[in-house]
Amino acid sequence: MSYSEQLFERAICKIPGGVNSPVRAFLSVGGTPRFIDHAKGQYMYDVDGNQYLDYIGSWGPMILGHNNDLVKDAVIKAAERGLSFGAATEVEVIMAEVVCQMVPFVEMIRMVNSGTEAVMSAIRAARGFTGRDKVIKFEGCYHGHADSMLVKAGSGVMTSGIPSSSGVPNGCAKDTLTARYNDLDSVIQLMEQNKGEVACIIVEPIAANMGVVVPDRAFLQGLRDICNAEGSLLIFDEVITGFRLQADGASGYFHIIPDLVTYGKIIGAGMPVGAYGGRADVMKVISPVGSVYQAGTLSGNPIAMAAGLAQLNELKEHPEIYIKLNATGQMLRDGITALIQKYDVPCQVNGAGSLACLYFTKENVIDYETAKTADIEQFAKYFHFLLEHGIYIGPSQFEAMFVSYAHTEQNIMQTLDGIEEFFIKIAK
Ligand code: KE4
């Protein structure tokens, strides 16, 4: 029995499903989750000494690669001064100033401890600012596990096959309206049925929790126009796309400005950090300035800020990183496209920048319904085939592949060779 299997046997006795986050549990692909011992650059190493070329990157934070020396050194240096004070620190001011420099439409920002907390707080700010209760989200988009967001959500909710979560009171879910991604008519219909009641529309500007779905720009522009016309706020959930596509994220990539934006993952460089920000007039409803309460013992934690700041400064000062990173992502997607055509397999590849997803369906994946046509069993075989070949992708058809700055062209060729071997098996 491998040590991962031994650890998993122990874990399931004390932790629900043996994991501290469901998506790690190999639920939809089967088998034993690998317990990771350490990681560096583009590689992870499990407790049995197996090396993996990693396309999870901690689900996004590791844009520079695992255990980046600049980040590690910043954490060690900060830790020597103390872990947490429950009082203001200089590093929080610098972090806020750096984010506002990198994303000019962000006039004010508040640090929290996760993407979930960022989304929960941004929605509360929108409700406080507009005096309205209802929220429009999109089927297949995942915005963390706050009650109001667990309605037709993506990521682990979609992977587990449950349409929504139990434990969410009807009183809460009734104010969450779900529209179809890439479909403005479904939004217009909801707005007409709930005239003057919608506080905000929250959207993943590139949906990366039903695989990866890059919307038409006109869809996002349409949301912007609808919010302007209806007096609702537009929230871009950039927990994944923020600081990944380019320094100013998806808002810069599409040239569309939301009223609020949420961050996570990259902003903490692997430490627990989320953030929400945007228009100063909206952010000023947040306590202690305004009447919308939001707080957190470890919000703006100095160690986490040091980690995030080290990563953001590297990205800010070396924009050429994005050129190489996005070219590597493009090389992966182009290679997969060529293999799909060569072997005529019923697959699609979606993505942008350093994000990619190979779907096992012949449908063009543009939303939740088309994403759900994917052959989950075939994906499970693909997942384990790659894992046995030392390539670790997310254990779910509905998660993205994350390319890091540490991934080399040779790594991409190795990955494409693995995918080609699998396609040869299934093309017969
Ligand atoms: P966290 O609370 O997990 O930090 O962030 C929630 C969240 C919010 N918004 C978007 C767009 C997100 O992708 C996420 C979290 N992403 C998943 C991966 N698809 C986290 C992985 C997990 O749940 O373990």
Record keyword descriptors for this entry.
globular, binds ligand KE4, 14% strand, 428 residues, 7-stranded mixed beta sheet, alpha/beta, 4-stranded mixed beta sheet, 15 helices
How does this model look, in words?
With 428 residues, the chain is an alpha/beta fold. The protein is 40% helix and 14% strand. It has helices spanning 3-14, 69-79, 90-102, 115-130, 155-159, 170-173, 184-193, 217-230, 249-254, 280-283, 302-317, 320-343, 368-371, 376-388, 409-427, and strands at residues 36-40, 43-46, 51-54, 108-112, 134-138, 176-179, 198-203, 233-237, 260-263, 274-278, 348-352, 355-359, 391-392, 401-402. The strands form 3 sheets. A 7-stranded mixed beta sheet has the order 4-10-9-8-7-5-6, sandwiched between helices. A 4-stranded mixed beta sheet has the order 1-2-3-13. It starts with a helix and ends with a helix. The mean pLDDT is 97. The structure holds ligand KE4. Ligand KE4 binds at residues 21, 23, 59, 114-116, 119, 142-144, 155-156, 204, 209, 237, 239-240, 264, 274, 399. Residues 21, 23, 59, 114-116, 119, 142-144, 155-156, 204, 209, 237, 239-240, 264, 274, 399 line the site of ligand KE4.
Q: What is the β-strand count?
A: 14
Q: What is the CA-atom radius of gyration, in angstroms?
A: 21 Å
User: Which range does the strand content fall in?
Assistant: 5-15%
Strand order of the largest sheet: 4-10-9-8-7-5-6
Bound heterogens, unique: ligand KE4
Choose one word for the global shape. Answer: globular
Termini, distance in Å?
Answer: 34 Å
**Sheet with the most strands, sense and barrel status:** 7 strands, mixed
- Low-confidence stretches at least 5 residues in length (pLDDT < 50)? none
